[in-house]
């Protein structure tokens, strides 16, 4: 039997504010435990939370960037549940009146474009952090994160493969980063993702029983976990067994999803409007004002890269998937550095050498990379030498011109100078020269290699071929 | 009856309250009285009246994004039944 995969994602994006959502405590990551807390976020009785305006602004921004409806009237609600990382006994969130609804983004998988719907986005506060004792049956609570502003972004169940889920996640991540409203760090938890996934026989209208996947703290993990869960559910269904609706944790060490033991009761959150926070009314003028601050977004930038720089679709997608990378590319385009060549260098050499680190940590300034590529285009150095220069640049951050000069790497294109060496080589290898003349033209590689050895790789390779042809065939 | 013993037990569990038999009966009775009283409100004709969730009409009570000094940690932890000087200590929850 063939199954159709149905996936929906819930993303929690930590909004990049200085202070928490309802109090002035710092949102700084990595502070000593419980040093960024106050009566409001500790949930002490008698306090009054006051909403951070920036949280509303950022949420509107994200709504506008995803063609969503901004709900002009929205309000907070209390989601009641008991857990030690939630000192108030409820999470202040939004329920029936969220700030954003009915949006969409475009994703591209294997050259096909698809729209993924966004059901809603709502503002809420984060909970604290629990640490479990290895030996004693106790847990420790750090409430620094309590009250950190989150935007929860809920997709429609529109994704039909783990690849599509991955592409959607990447797209939301890119938009948040372009808007500069979330730092997007999955390891530090400022960008988190839960997934709902179910399978149904092809053609069936109703959804199958879904499971919810948690604890996927990297893009790769999200795709791996979903792929694993597809296999697990498919095996169950093919064996005539039932999928149990439950929450599963992804274990990246065993590469499996695992059932959460002792799962809380069926959700019974008893939502009600939060009496401490007055509703939010968003005027058209406010929305217009925020609209004016929207930067060029990933899709627009991609389209521009294709038309303005004549880049292939593939290059444009990769370069614009990350705002900093796209900025880096554009800053590298100094006169003499052709866009496609710069793109090639960034996508192969640079990204490989960065080994997954952010482009912002790169020692090579964009204009330096542009300078290096301009030197190749001008014929000052060969492509091969350029790689040597590039590694040196990555290590020292020096200008390519300086490295080329210091190491005397300028390409030798002087015909007279090279011909003298070529003739020496031919004279020193009479047998190979004879074979070459008798049609063993493959030996050209051998001769050019000799020349490169003698010139330490600096001979202009095109000229080298010409000169050997001349010297050998007269 | 506006509320059953089972419902009270359920809500008590969600709130992590342990009620003995006597308390359970007492609470059910009291809650029933409260709910009956509140139910009186539904006798009012509210046709054409916009539902409201807050007692007054104000909206948009915002603060600008800015950090103010947090509590000293000793004070944050002062009311904790158990702590280790850095963190709150609670029974283990998975």
From TrEMBL, chain A:
Record field: catalytic activity: L-aspartyl-tRNA(Asn) + L-glutamine + ATP + H2O = L-asparaginyl-tRNA(Asn) + L-glutamate + ADP + phosphate + 2 H(+); L-glutamyl-tRNA(Gln) + L-glutamine + ATP + H2O = L-glutaminyl-tRNA(Gln) + L-glutamate + ADP + phosphate + H(+)
Protein name: Aspartyl/glutamyl-tRNA(Asn/Gln) amidotransferase subunit B
InterPro entries assigned to the protein according to its UniProt record, in alphabetical order: Asn/Gln-tRNA_amidoTrfase_suB/E, Asn/Gln-tRNA_Trfase_suB/E_cat, Asn/Gln_amidotransferase, Asn/Gln_tRNA_amidoTrase-B-like, GatB, GatB_C_1, GatB_Yqey_C_2, Gln-tRNA_amidoTrfase_suB_CS
Assembly notes: Heterotrimer of A, B and C subunits.
SMART domains: GatB_Yqey
Similarity remark: Belongs to the GatB/GatE family. GatB subfamily.
Occurrences of domain Asn/Gln amidotransferase (ranges): 327-472
Gene name in the database record: gatB
4Fe-4S in keyword set: no
PROSITE patterns in the cross-refs: GATB
Superkingdom of the source species: Bacteria
NCBIfam families documented for this protein: gatB, PRK05477.1-2, PRK05477.1-4, PRK05477.1-5
Gene Ontology molecular function terms on file: asparaginyl-tRNA synthase (glutamine-hydrolyzing) activity; ATP binding; glutaminyl-tRNA synthase (glutamine-hydrolyzing) activity; transferase activity
Keywords: ATP-binding, Ligase, Nucleotide-binding, Protein biosynthesis, Transferase
Top EC class for this record: ligase
Role: Allows the formation of correctly charged Asn-tRNA(Asn) or Gln-tRNA(Gln) through the transamidation of misacylated Asp-tRNA(Asn) or Glu-tRNA(Gln) in organisms which lack either or both of asparaginyl-tRNA or glutaminyl-tRNA synthetases. The reaction takes place in the presence of glutamine and ATP through an activated phospho-Asp-tRNA(Asn) or phospho-Glu-tRNA(Gln).
EC number(s) stated in the UniProt entry for this protein: 6.3.5.-
From TrEMBL, chain B:
Catalytic activity: L-glutamyl-tRNA(Gln) + L-glutamine + ATP + H2O = L-glutaminyl-tRNA(Gln) + L-glutamate + ADP + phosphate + H(+); L-aspartyl-tRNA(Asn) + L-glutamine + ATP + H2O = L-asparaginyl-tRNA(Asn) + L-glutamate + ADP + phosphate + 2 H(+)
Record GO terms (molecular function): asparaginyl-tRNA synthase (glutamine-hydrolyzing) activity; ATP binding; glutaminyl-tRNA synthase (glutamine-hydrolyzing) activity; transferase activity
InterPro entries: Asp/Glu-ADT_sf_sub_c, GatC
An individual GO BP term: glutaminyl-tRNAGln biosynthesis via transamidation
EC number of this enzyme: 6.3.5.-
Enzyme class at the top of the EC tree: ligase
Function, as annotated: Allows the formation of correctly charged Asn-tRNA(Asn) or Gln-tRNA(Gln) through the transamidation of misacylated Asp-tRNA(Asn) or Glu-tRNA(Gln) in organisms which lack either or both of asparaginyl-tRNA or glutaminyl-tRNA synthetases. The reaction takes place in the presence of glutamine and ATP through an activated phospho-Asp-tRNA(Asn) or phospho-Glu-tRNA(Gln).
Subunit: Heterotrimer of A, B and C subunits.
Family assignment from sequence similarity: Belongs to the GatC family.
Official protein name in the record: Aspartyl/glutamyl-tRNA(Asn/Gln) amidotransferase subunit C
Origin organism lineage: Bacteria, Pseudomonadati, Thermodesulfobacteriota, Desulfobulbia, Desulfobulbales
């Amino acid at each position: 039997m063939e199954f159709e995969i149905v996936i929906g994602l819930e993303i929690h994006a930590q909004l990049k504010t200085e202070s928490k959502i309802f109090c002035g405590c710092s949102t700084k990551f990595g502070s000593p435990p419980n040093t960024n807390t106050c009566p409001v976020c500790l949930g002490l009785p008698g306090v009054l939370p006051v909403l951070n305006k920036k949280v509303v602004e950022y949420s509107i921004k994200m709504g506008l960037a995803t063609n969503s409806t901004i709900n002009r009237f929205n309000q907070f609600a209390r989601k009641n549940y008991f857990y030690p990382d939630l000192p108030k006994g409820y999470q202040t969130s939004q329920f029936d009146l969220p700030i954003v609804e009915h949006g969409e983004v475009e994703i591209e998988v294997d050259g096909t474009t698809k729209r993924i719907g966004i059901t809603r986005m709502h503002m809420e506060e984060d909970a604290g952090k629990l640490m479990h004792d290895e030996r004693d049956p106790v847990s420790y609570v750090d409430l620094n994160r309590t009250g950190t502003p989150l935007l929860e972004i809920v997709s429609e169940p529109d994704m039909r493969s783990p690849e599509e889920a991955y592409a959607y996640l990447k797209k939301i991540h890119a938009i948040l980063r372009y808007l500069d409203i979330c730092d997007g760090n999955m390891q530090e938890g400022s960008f988190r993702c839960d997934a709902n996934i179910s399978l149904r026989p092809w053609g069936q209208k109703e959804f199958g029983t879904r499971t919810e996947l948690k604890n996927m703290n990297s893009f790769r993990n999200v795709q791996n976990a979903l792929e694993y869960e597809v296999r697990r559910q498919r095996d169950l269904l093919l064996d005539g067994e039932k999928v149990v609706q439950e929450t599963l944790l992804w274990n990246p060490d065993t590469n499996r999803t695992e059932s959460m033991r002792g799962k809380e009761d069926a959700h019974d959150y008893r939502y009600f409007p939060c009496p401490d926070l007055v509703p939010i009314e968003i005027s058209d003028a406010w929305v217009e004002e925020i609209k004016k601050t929207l930067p060029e977004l990933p899709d627009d930038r991609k389209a521009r890269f294709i038309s303005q720089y004549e880049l292939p679709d593939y290059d444009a997608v990769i370069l614009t998937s990350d705002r900093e990378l796209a900025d880096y590319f554009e800053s590298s385009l100094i006169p003499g550095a052709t866009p496609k060549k710069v793109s090639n260098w960034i996508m192969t050499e640079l990204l490989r050498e960065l080994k997954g680190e952010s482009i912002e940590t790169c020692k090579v300034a964009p204009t330096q990379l542009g300078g290096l590529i301009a030197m190749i285009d001008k014929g000052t150095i060969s492509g091969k030498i350029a790689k040597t220069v590039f590694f040196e640049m990555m290590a020292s951050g020096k200008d390519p011109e300086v490295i080329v000069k210091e190491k005397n790497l300028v390409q030798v294109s002087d015909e007279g100078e090279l011909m003298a060496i070529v003739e020496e080589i031919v004279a020193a290898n009479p047998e190979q020269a004879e074979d070459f003349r008798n049609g063993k033209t493959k030996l050209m590689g051998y001769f050019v290699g000799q020349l490169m050895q003698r010139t330490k790789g600096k001979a202009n390779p095109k000229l080298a071929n010409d000169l050997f042809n001349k010297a050998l065939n007269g | 009856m506006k509320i059953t013993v089972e419902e009270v037990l359920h809500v008590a569990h969600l709130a992590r309250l342990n009620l003995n038999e006597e308390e359970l009966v007492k609470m059910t009775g009291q809650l029933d009285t409260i709910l009956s009283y509140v139910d009186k409100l539904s006798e009012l004709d509210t046709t054409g009246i916009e539902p409201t969730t807050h007692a007054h009409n104000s909206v948009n009570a915002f603060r600008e994004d800015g950090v103010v000094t947090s509590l000293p940690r000793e004070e944050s932890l002062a009311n904790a039944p158990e702590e280790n000087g850095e963190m709150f200590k609670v029974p283990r929850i998975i």
